[in-house]
Amino acid sequence: MIQALRNAFRLPDVRNKLLITTLILVIYRFVAHVPVVGVQSEALEVLLDPNTAGSNFIGVLNLLSGGAVSNFSIIANGVYPYITASIIFQLLVPIIPRLEAIQREPGGQEKIQRYTYYLAIPMAILQSVGQISVFNALISGTPIVDQQTGQVITGIINGYGENFLLTIAVITTMTAGTMFAIWLGDLITEQGIGNGISIIIFAGIVAQTPGNLFQLLSANPDRWVYNLALFVVVVLVSLVVIVLIQEGTRRIPVQYGKRVRGRKMYGGQSTHIPLKVNPVGMIPLIFSQAIIAFPAILVALFPPGEVGQAIQNTFGNQQGGLYWFSFFLLTVAFTFFYADVMVGNQKLAENLQRNGGFIPGIRPGKRTEEYIVYVTRRITVVGALFLGIIAVVPGIIAWFNGLIFPLEAVGQASAATNAGYVLSGSGLIIVVGVVIDTMRQLEAQLVMRNYEGFMR
Question: Is the pTM higher than 0.85?
Answer without folding.
Answer: no
